[in-house]
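input
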Amino acid sequence: MFVLAGFAVATVVAISRKAAAGIDGQSSRDRRVILAAWLIGYVIVLVLQAALSDSASAQTLAFIALAGPLILAGIVYIMAAVLGRDLPALGLGCWLVIAGVSCAWQAPAAMLATCALAGGGGFLLIALIEIRRRA
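output
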């Protein structure tokens, strides 16, 4: 799994570098801020999972493992929307945070379903909106 994750990260980095080649200034700084937020946020989520693994309930661990990344993604999308003045990204970020926070009162299996359906559904919806906007 770590090999596949490493391959996915390497692919994203390679594609991102190619897409951002020759772009500098404020866009470059914004991109670095967003990347730093992703990295720091995921490290925090992983540290929380490790720190609470022996002492927390199954529901708490499921919330951190499943809803934590969803909430983090929502917060980063909100930040990116503010930096880039992108209203659809702001809507997606708010939706992801709401979907993630709503998992706090659910059983672990329901959390998984909510995060998958609401989170994935939000990404699919925003993709359709962006396709229509650009057409």
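quick obs: Residues 26-52 form the longest helix (27 residues).
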